[in-house]
Amino acid sequence: MAGTSINTCFFSTSNLGTSSLVLKTHNARAVPGKLPGRRSLTVKADVNYVNADQAKELVAVEGYTVLDVRDRIQFERAHIKSCYHVPLFIENKDNDLGTIVNRTLHNNFSGLFYGLPFTKPNPDFVQSVKSQFPPESKLLVVCQEGLRSAAAAQKLEQAGFSNVASMTSGLQKVKPGTFDSVGSTELQDAGKAGLVTIQGKISAVLGTVLVCAYLFITFFPDQAEKLFQFVPAG
């Protein structure tokens, strides 16, 4: 008589995200005179995706450790106090022809405007985390935009870590004061650099000048008219 198989899935939800428990049992073909076949059990814990407020609760209440996976430059600009840093991407300093060409193009465009280094996947990412944390550790993975943290959390889950959470919105959406931080800027501004930052400052100055000019013309129209008389005619 052929054996039977049973697949059972249990799902649970909470205000901190969704997790699932997958239970699988398999009965092999029954052999006369012997006990029923072996049974296997597989437990799978999914990544818990949370927003900034939920992430703060995980750290403060449930004892999660913050794992920052951003590149070194962003981490040095600002990071959550007492967090651990293991970058998902590292600076690419390879000197083969293809890398040199791509790095030059990057530095003249994305690197110039956004201040981003030319990077490559960190081949030692998972092993570096394993060397610092046991598989049952509670880890909250963060990055600047939420993309690298999601990818890193998936890698850790696949490597056997069972209590992994990822902050979906990234540090750029964290309100000041949500976490104690260290660095020369606010957490939400750690990803801003290059010409974009300079452009932003120039825009702010021009905006202030235009507002002041508008107020001056509105409240002192006579003085403004006299000033306009000194402007050379085109």
From TrEMBL:
Give UniProt keywords alphabetically: Membrane, Transmembrane, Transmembrane helix
Q: Which InterPro entries match?
A: Rhodanese-like_dom, Rhodanese-like_dom_sf, STR9
- What SMART domains does the annotation carry? RHOD (SM00450)
Annotated membrane-spanning segments are 202-220
Q: Which CDD domains match?
A: RHOD
Please name one Pfam family that this protein belongs to. Rhodanese
Gene Ontology cellular-component terms for this entry are: chloroplast
Q: Which domain of life is it from?
A: Eukaryota
Listed PANTHER family:
RHODANESE-LIKE DOMAIN-CONTAINING PROTEIN 9, CHLOROPLASTIC (PTHR45508:SF1)
Q: What is the name of this protein? A: Rhodanese domain-containing protein
Give the originating organism: Crotalaria pallida (Smooth rattlebox)
